[in-house]
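lol ok so funny story. i was supposed to be doing the assay writeup but got distracted and ended up predicting the structure for this chain instead. priorities right. anyway since i did it might as well share w the group, maybe its usefull for someone
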Amino acid sequence: MRRVLWIATAVIQPAAAFAAAVEEHAEAAHGIPWGKLALSTINLTVFLLILPRAIKGLVGISPRVWLAERRARVAQELGEADRAKREAEALRAEWQRRLEQLSGQLEEMLRQARADIGVERDQILAAARKTAEAIHRDAQRTADSEIRNARNALRAELAAQALAVAERLAPQRVTPTDQRRFVDEFVQQVERR
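and the output, tada:
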């Protein structure tokens, strides 16, 4: 650090003094101030040579090393960004493929559900028809049974009324022989039915 300050003091101060002297002399002459241009160039060169060393002394790292590290870090980050971009594109493509598959699967599920609903509907209708037929058979049997019972009850009632009428009228008009004959005929007719 002391060396940089010594070089800066030893070179820059005389160069600045000489540039000031040349500037005063150049004001008198017209044209391109070659001397001033040469001294400014020397001044810039010295500054550019001293600046990296001064920065290294102040910061603790050489600007070239810092720039190289920075360049490597930027290149690495760009590589990582490129890799991340490729991964993101691959992931997006994968999700797009999954969405398309999901769409196909949903359509297949809907088709299968419709088919299942149709099968279930047919099964329910078949079961309902069987139940309706069973109810119809039971109702027919019940009706037939009720008709038989009604006929039997009607015959019994008719026979009871005929017997009551015959018992009432028979003593008045019918002889005992006729009465027996009527009863026998009636019983035979009832048995036939």
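The radius of gyration is 65 Å. The chain has a mean pLDDT of 82.
back to the writeup now i swear
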